[in-house]
């Protein structure tokens, strides 16, 4: 065996041990539970809103402002959490986020005015990005490119599971004890999950450095990767980064229009409350099934085509939902849920492909910031269009237009750049 051949074999052997193998999948349990607390921070409010508004005597506009406060805090804190995840580690950031969410939910149960509700929901929104952003660098360091999407998809299932579980948990608590206890009991559940996350969340061990090849091709590779450490400003110089930002923000606007007005649209078409809520719950169930599926596809196919496929399926679901036919509505809700969860799942995996690992947290924080901006704009724009036309169907059509723009943007997404993944 020649010297060069021996170096290559040694390099390959080192690569085979670069990623921790035995028992690696158990680490997904921590992010899964973390995403459950993320779901609790976002989806408790819609269930509690009617009873809370009635007791506090707040109009729908004020209750909508409280809901928007969540996304304002989510947007403003996402970049901070992403940067802290890169500097302090994902485990610390995610534990801090769960603590903030638990405190926010506890405070929401003590709301006695519009101003307090606004401030307390800001707290819930401020803690949420720590989970959605923090899990990306954590799992990116545990899993290689060939299984990262599947791991992130499995973790994001926690959000869908929380959506479904809250639909059973909160109505039962409210029926027995009132809306305040719905907040308090959900806060207690989040603090219980915090204790579990303390033991389950683990940073990846350092990967051993691979022996350097002595071939001329390796020397050329060194010349390519040499240079200053990657920075966020450098990443923003890539066209692909801006394409991802456009996709995530425009899609976020279209997605939140559906989330905000879906049940109200069915009520507008004279559906009873229980059946309309059942269609929404079906959406939550199919997000659970969709997350690992899209993650697996993202490991095998180009991210741009997986994003496009998820958006197309979601758009088909929008069309079916707008028909108003019971069978089509339930089928549409399932398609929207299954397709919708694919976007954050693939975006999470794409962050590890398009950005160096040393700034993955900050990079995904930037993407989350753009997504949250769309989430703030979408419901307001959908509401304005609906009020002008006199029907919520026009607002949902605006959301469908947002999906169309996001889908077209995926077609110009470039391949991930070759980069060092320090």
Description:
The chain has about 425 residues and is mainly α. The protein is built from 17 helices and no strands. The N terminus is likely disordered.
Question: How is this structure best summarized?
Answer:
The chain is mainly alpha-helical and 422 residues long. Helix content is 81%, strand content 0%.
Order of helical and strand elements: HHHHHHHHHHHHHHHHH
Q: List low-confidence stretches.
A: 1-22, 209-227
CATH architectural designation of the largest domain? Up-down Bundle
% residues in beta strands: under 5%
| Computed CA radius of gyration, to the nearest angstrom | 22 Å
Query: In the CATH hierarchy, what is the superfamily of the largest domain?
Result: MFS general substrate transporter like domains
What's the helical proportion of residues? over 70%
Distance between the termini: 31 Å
Just give the CATH class of the largest domain. Answer: Mainly Alpha
CATH topology-level name of the largest domain: Growth Hormone, Chain: A
Shape descriptor: globular
The chain-level structural class is: mainly alpha
Tally of structural domains: 2
> Averaged pLDDT, please?
78
Tally of helical runs: 17
- Count of distinct strands: 0
Features of this protein?
81% helix; Growth Hormone, Chain: A; disordered N terminus; single chain; 2 domains; globular; mainly alpha; 422 residues
């Amino acid at each position: 065996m020649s010297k060069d051949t021996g170096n290559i074999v040694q390099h390959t052997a080192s690569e085979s041990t670069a990623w921790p193998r035995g028992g690696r999948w158990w680490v997904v349990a921590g992010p899964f539970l973390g995403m459950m607390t993320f779901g609790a921070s976002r989806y408790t409010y819609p269930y509690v809103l009617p009873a809370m508004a009635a007791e506090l005597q707040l109009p729908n506009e004020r209750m909508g402002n409280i809901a928007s406060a969540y996304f304002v805090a989510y947007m403003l804190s996402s970049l901070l959490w992403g940067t802290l995840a890169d500097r302090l580690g994902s485990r610390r950031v995610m534990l801090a986020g769960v603590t903030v969410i638990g405190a926010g939910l506890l405070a929401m149960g003590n709301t006695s005015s519009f101003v307090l509700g606004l401030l307390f929901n800001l707290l819930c929104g401020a803690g949420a990005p720590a989970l959605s952003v923090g899990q990306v660098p954590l799992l990116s360091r545990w899993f290689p490119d060939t299984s990262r999407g599947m791991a992130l998809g499995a973790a994001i299932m926690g959000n869908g599971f929380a959506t479904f579980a809250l639909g059973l948990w909160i109505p039962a608590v409210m029926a027995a004890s009132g809306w305040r206890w719905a907040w308090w009991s959900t806060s207690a559940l989040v603090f219980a999950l915090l204790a579990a996350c303390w033991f389950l969340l683990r940073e990846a061990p350092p990967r051993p450095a691979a022996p350097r090849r002595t071939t001329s091709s390796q020397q050329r590779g060194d010349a390519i990767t040499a240079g200053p450490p990657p920075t966020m400003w450098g990443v923003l110089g890539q066209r692909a980064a801006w394409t991802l930002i456009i996709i995530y923000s425009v899609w976020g606007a279209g997605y939140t229009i559906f989330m905000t007005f879906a049940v109200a649209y069915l009520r507008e078409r004279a559906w009873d409350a229980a059946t309309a809520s059942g269609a929404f719950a079906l959406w939550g169930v199919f997000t659970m099934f969709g997350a690992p599926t899209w993650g697996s596809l993202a490991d095998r196919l180009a991210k741009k085509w997986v994003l496009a496929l998820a958006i197309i399926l979601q758009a088909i679901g929008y069309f079916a939902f707008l028909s108003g036919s019971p069978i089509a509505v339930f089928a549409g809700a399932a398609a929207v849920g299954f397709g919708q969860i694919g976007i954050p799942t693939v975006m999470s995996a794409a962050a590890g492909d398009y950005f160096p690992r040393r700034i993955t947290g900050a990079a995904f924080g930037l993407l989350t910031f753009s997504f949250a901006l769309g989430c703030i704009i979408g419901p307001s724009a959908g509401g304005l269009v609906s009020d002008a036309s006199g029907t919520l169907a026009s607002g949902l059509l605006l959301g469908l237009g947002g999906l169309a723009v996001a889908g077209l943007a995926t077609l110009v997404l470039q391949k991930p750049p070759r980069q060092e993944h320090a």
